[in-house]
What does this fold into?
Amino acid sequence: MKNINYCVIEGKSAGFYGGIAVSVFFILLGLFAAYNMEHHGHVITGMNNQIVWGMPHVFAIFLILSASGVLNVASISSVFRKIFYHPLARLSALLAITLLIGGLSVLVLDLGHPDRLVVAMTSYNLKSIFSWNMFLYNGFLLICVIYLWFMMERRMQRYYPTVGLIAFIWRLILTTGTGSIFGFLVAREAYHTAIMAPLFIALSLSLGLAVFLIVLIIDCWEKQCPLGQGILHRPKTLLGVFIGAVFYFVLAYHSSHLYFTGRHGVEYFILAGGGIYTVLFWGGYIFLGTILPLLLLYHERFSKSCASIAAASVLTIVGGFALLYVIIIGGQAYPLEIFPGMEVTSSSFFDKGIHAYTPSGWEILLGISGIAIAALLTVLALRILPFMPCSLADIDIEPQFKD
Amino acid sequence: MNEETSPTQNRRDFLKTTAVVAGMTVAPGVLLYGVSRAHHAEGAVTSDVRWGMLIDTTKCSEGCDKCVSACATEHGLTEDVRPEIAAQWIRKVGVRDKQTGKEYSLPLLCQHCEHPPCVDVCPTGASFKRADGIVLVDKHICIGCRYCMMACPYKARSFIHETLENQKPYSPRGKGTVESCTLCVHRVDNEQQPACVEACNKVGHKAMLFGDLKDPNSDISKKLKEVSSTALRPDLRLNPGVRYQGL
It folds into this structure.
């Protein structure tokens, strides 16, 4: 097997400094938002006692799912032994770490008491899926660091597939845990279904790969490294498969809910009468996030171009984000069924009707800062250590990599 | 002529003074410690008791919200904020049967479940159930994640969105933490009734009956044997401590 040459990014271009400047700017804005949310309280956000999880949670879960899914490229290389993906494995594991740190930062900064992080790290209720997730997320970071080390250290290469397998299994458990945050909620009709776990796994795969492809294209553009059509072709096909898998689970989720008479109300709300949630589901997730990218990836007219792969990746992210918004916010906007068979005629605590939510600028800034944290860490890591192959041109990849 | 003080005398005085000062310093602590321990041993919460409530919806008057105002006064829930973020430990809800059209008015509060989902999901253990069945939030280790609010089927919890002032010493509250009905644990521990129950009785409705569900001779246990009552969302099998009659 031909040795792949890995390079650091040169770090002298306008793109490099511009990227760092933009990231730092958004991180500072996010920290300012978090400071204000801590100082004034969550009164300055759009969240309230009805919609208790808002835009920061959509961003955080988007980043956490992407972190889990982005490792897929490394897993394909080390677990499924598709050596074609081997040159990209380092970048894949790096992004898994940086995206997870970005997501967790948003989650922590949104807490009512971020200053009590040490309490969260030392006082555990082991029946809580949140507690399990703290172990799963921290364990994932540790495993990814070891995975990267074994990939990059020649003496440790023989253990690399074993760590790869552990990372792969850990990742599946981690995303199961993230999905189960909602799946375990007996109270809310939109959640409380075991399909949340596989749905989140599928979503993590599509989001992760889309993020990976975008980073790959941006990175190659910045480094001006050649990027062959061959290296984009396979992940592109895989992205289409993942988009289809998410659609399958969404279909299964909604069709089973439509079958249960008791859940017709919430289904009608999401699919037909839910205003912004209905628009985001059909327009955002189904059209922009599923139909259009599939068309771009599989239609002969578009499928060959790098631009259409980039566009399909962006659209997959837009669609996945819209789906998460519908699941997380839409699921809370529909009122709790405290009195089955009865309708609420009056209440001072909003037991009647759909709950309103408008995200505030602070929440959006905090969410974007999570992406900025991931971006900054990625750029700095790429500058310091060689995570990326010097060339991804088809000609530089040996025949066996084309396997 | 000045008499010289002997070194032995000096040492004796010094030791005496030190002993007195040390004694005076430590004694109150020892005394208070003893008092607190004695009280704790006497009044320890045990699972021999399970506090609960029976709400008679046929006696609950539609226009009356004395229970709500009594709770607000008792716990200092008086902050002037937007209704969407205002804390409500107990609220009046009007409901109508979709089939028969019959209307009901009832107070809704934390149901103090035997298997509380809020306790199950709380990552730090801040949400907890006392041995006597009262579900509480430890404000010192609540990190404000609001997962308990997502999990509660009764929407019984409120998050504090702003800085609070003038909190009651027996009812600690704070920005960035979640709170809910404590069943007036400070009163119950002093053998008093919760404020809402007392207020309801005072206006003569007597729609709220509070007591020990495990004591077969308590008024609430006797009443529960006589009349048919139901829990809210009985399908979830959380076995709430609050039950409703006539619903």
About this structure: Chain A touches chain B through 51 residues (CB under 8 Å). The mean pLDDT of chain A is 92. Chain A has one domain: 6-335+354-402.
